[in-house]
Design goal:
With 427 residues, this protein is of the alpha/beta class. It folds into three domains: 5-121, Alpha-Beta Plaits (2-Layer Sandwich); 166-304, Dna Topoisomerase Vi A Subunit, Chain: A, domain 2; 327-426, AICAR transformylase, duplication domain (Cytidine Deaminase, domain 2, 3-Layer(aba) Sandwich), CATH 3.40.140.20. The chain has 17 helices and 19 strands. A five-stranded antiparallel β-sheet has the order 4-5-3-7-6. Helix 16 links the parallel strand 17 and strand 18.
Length: 427
């Protein structure tokens, strides 16, 4: 390998791989001289001085000495510069020749003085080049080794996941626990099932397209079913189809423009944790209730088993809860209705400080915003959606005192320190 390096104090090039040592000397001349004059003076005034063995021309022919590199400048009738000569001779011979350079007394017609500045071991430069290259090679080797190790691990893991996948009813890709689990997650494709298996979720089954298989329809009538779909238009189409033909209890979605098969463990857990009931999802998205009248009551009955304590309350108790809320006519501001009208159809929420807008966010990201507890000064939430029990729980912790929304879900208890208004209340 040939490495060409620039001299420290000039523009001259030397090849450290062709030499062991570098002679550096300064030159001063009482007159204007150029590079060729200096080179001629070095050859002429050292010729025969050290005998035939150290004659510069013979040394260059044999490759034991390099070119005479000169950098010279003239100013106000005087010239100064630097001479650099590479040597592959031993230390003694190089030192002798370097000392001989100082015998140069004239350059052309001008009196001159040559002074040796340094006699450097160029092999130190080679060592630096070697160290740097070795470092680069070692880093690449370590990277390749790590990549190979992780590839092996991933390959083995993927093979294990593939072995774990079963065929539900002999047809649909599914996790091994689908047959026995009371709760089932319905996803779009085989890749989604694999990713959930990778993160320890073994009760998923894939529909593999928008044409929902009858096996999934039958499963939805017996189990608690969560539809977990991609955060794109395709995911919406799957949900619409599922709601029309199956009895879906909950709906979870991946983040916007993200597919379930590409989610990390944290993203999967968060998406499933933030799932909503099918009824609430349809209300938030202003979807009409799908299916025939015979299907709807069946779903309500099945889901209502979990909500039985709340449904057992008589009309009088419900009236009591409603009457316990602050009277809308007394505390509602006309500004609330104006803001709510502006949000119509946006699926957004606005955070207000008094009547001043502090922030506007998507409703789907509202729990995260409120959960951060960083809405200092924000006291009012206005949203193009439905007030849920989870929202009522989060809002006071974020400093919210008033919530204005399109509608309100059934709340298990009266909120404390929180005033709720719906579009109907404001009207």
């Amino acid at each position: 390998m040939v490495q060409v390096l620039k001299a420290r104090d000039g523009n001259m090039n030397i090849d450290p791989t062709s030499s062991k040592y570098v002679i550096k000397a300064s030159i001063r001349a009482n007159g204007v001289v150029n590079k060729s004059d200096v080179v001629g003076a070095v050859f002429g005034q050292t010729e025969g001085l050290l005998g035939d063995e150290l004659d510069l021309r013979d040394l260059q022919k044999s490759g034991r000495m390099g070119r005479v590199e000169v950098e010279i400048k003239s100013d106000k009738g005087k010239s100064t510069g630097e001479i650099i000569i590479s040597s592959s001779m031993d230390q003694v011979e190089t030192s002798v020749f370097a000392a001989a350079l100082e015998t140069v007394e004239r350059v052309g017609p001008c009196k001159a003085t040559v002074k040796i500045l340094a006699l450097e071991d160029s092999r130190s430069t080679k060592r630096e080049v070697i160290i740097e290259r070795a470092r680069s090679l070692l880093i690449n080797l370590i990277k390749d080794s790590r990549t190979a190790g992780s590839t092996i691990t991933d390959t083995v893991r993927q093979a294990l996941q593939t072995e774990e996948i079963v065929r539900f009813k002999g047809k649909l890709p599914a996790g091994p626990n689908v047959e026995s689990s009371d709760a089932v997650i319905v996803v779009e494709g085989r890749g989604d099932v694999l990713n959930l298996l990778k993160h320890g979720i073994k009760n998923s089954v894939a529909v593999e397209g928008t044409n929902i298989p009858k096996e999934v329809v039958g499963l939805s009538k017996e189990r608690t079913v969560t539809a977990f779909v991609d955060g794109d238009r395709g995911g919406e189409m799957i949900i619409q189809e599922l709601l029309q033909v199956a009895e879906i209890d909950f709906i979870a979605r991946a983040p916007d423009n993200t597919e379930v098969e590409h989610l990390t463990h944290k993203q999967i857990m968060k998406s499933l944790r933030d799932k909503v009931t099918a009824e609430l999802f349809m209300e938030q998205n202003k979807w009409a209730r799908p299916g025939s009248s015979s299907k709807a009551p069946a779903k309500k009955t099945r889901r209502g088993a979990k909500a039985a304590p709340a449904s057992k309350k008589n009309d009088k108790s419900e009236e009591t809860v409603e009457s316990a809320e602050p009277a809308p006519a007394a505390k509602a501001s006309p500004h609330f209705l104006e803001q709510l009208t502006q949000l119509d159809g946006s699926k957004n929420a606005r955070l207000l400080m008094g009547e001043e807008l502090a922030d506007e966010v998507l409703i789907v990201g509202l729990p995260e915003v409120l959960g951060s507890h960083k809405n200092n000064g924000v006291d009012t939430l206005i949203m193009d959606g439905v007030i849920t029990p989870h929202l009522v729980e989060l809002a006071p912790k974020a400093g919210i005192k008033t919530i204005v929304a399109k509608g309100k879900a059934v709340l298990p208890r009266e909120p404390i320190g929180l005033t709720l208004f719906t579009a109907e209340d404001l009207a």
